Amino acid sequence: FMFQDKGFNGEFRLGSGKVPLGLKRKGLRVVVTGGGGFVGSHLVDRLMARGDSVIVVDNFFTGRKENLMHHFGNPRFELIRHDVVEPILLEVDQIYHLACPASPVHYKFNPTNVVGTLNMLGLAKRVGARFLLTSTSEVYGDPLQHPQVETYWGNVNPIGVRSCYDEGKRTAETLTMDYHRGAGVEVRIARIFNTYGPRMGIDDGRVVSNFVAQALRKEPMTVYGDGKQTRSFQYVSDLVEGLMRLMEGEHVGPFNLGNPGEFTMLELAQVVQETIDPNARIDFRPNTEDDPHKRKPDIGKAKELLGWEPKVALRQGLPLMVSDFRTRIFGDHADGFG
Ligand code: NAD
Ligand code: UDP
Ligand code: UDP
């Protein structure tokens, strides 16, 4: 029915994604690549809740069907097992491109960031969809500017052990801007800072998941190096809110999305002790190569242009993740005492 396809006042053209926030509208058709993963599955929950039709494209490299099972059987939800490194034909309005092996343990030697992003941009171009790239604070490398502002070009070792991820995302940003300038694709770029929450991969090697799983299992928390390096930890619901505001807003970005609360790894270990087990021990391990010494987002731009800022502090968010980890590690009958 034509009127519905045009939406109200013809303002919403199929494929344009131009729908003012907060207005009643026909649900959009949205692709979430990597929707089986940690961040993606929370995003899918929000999109489903607002009435969109959601297609998840995921090869389950690090994602899990369990993160999405509650949507199985809903006619607005579709799950496609597919590697985004291969082309795919879909008809959609918006593409949230999250597919990426995101943990250092997984991301080595994987072409997803470059070839997968190219394919999703090709798809966006063909169907006139709006495309959002989830880039990363890693594009700033071991930053010489603190906190990091979007205008900072970064300090990345192009031949280091992390460069596959860092440079992969930098290339993904380049491709995104080239498709924007060259082919007129509507694009959005988010630079995501360290994010944690329920459904994080238990053994994916990232620091928050490692410490929480270790403390729950009564194993020592592995602090790499002297533990004085810093990170800023964002709760997943804050990130999802930021991603959706970015997609619906009028600004290309890049935008830093992160929580400016900065912690050393030793301070993080202390928060985990407070939350799980005051007697949890710490084990020092050699640090990985090229580990950034500090990281903290300047979120002034997102505050001003997206009206966004994180709401959940680490000490509030961590317990929510811990109860999810407890259930997944010890089973449904976890008694709350590990
Ligand atoms: P995740 O590993 O939980 O999710 C990534 C998902 O992508 C998984 O479901 C995985 O199976 C899927 N995937 C990987 N390669 C694929 C491929 N070739 N084809 C199809 N699917 C593929 O990680 P996450 O933390 O949810 O990260 C989501 C996005 O956010 C990533 O792009 C990541 O780079 C970015 N990001 C995350 C953080 C963070 O702290 N979580 C920080 C910066 C950036
Ligand atoms: N692509 C895709 N789905 C589409 C359209 C394109 O997967 O609906 C892939 C396509 O196979 C190509 C990439 O996206 O590998 C870039 O497409 P584009 O049309 O920009 O480049 P071209 O094919 O002209 O080189
Ligand atoms: N780290 C740690 N113990 C771990 C895992 C990581 O001390 O078990 C440190 C790591 O060296 C880095 C910080 O925690 O300094 C964040 O690492 P993560 O892999 O979570 O994220 P990224 O390095 O991508 O910010």
TrEMBL record:
Pathway: Nucleotide-sugar biosynthesis; UDP-alpha-D-xylose biosynthesis; UDP-alpha-D-xylose from UDP-alpha-D-glucuronate: step 1/1. This is UDP-glucuronate decarboxylase. It comes from Amborella trichopoda. One of its GO terms (biological process) is D-xylose metabolic process. Catalyzes the NAD-dependent decarboxylation of UDP-glucuronic acid to UDP-xylose. Necessary for the biosynthesis of the core tetrasaccharide in glycosaminoglycan biosynthesis. The keyword Transcription does not apply. It is found in: Golgi apparatus, Golgi stack membrane. Its main location: Golgi. One of its GO terms (molecular function) is UDP-glucuronate decarboxylase activity. Its EC number is 4.1.1.35.
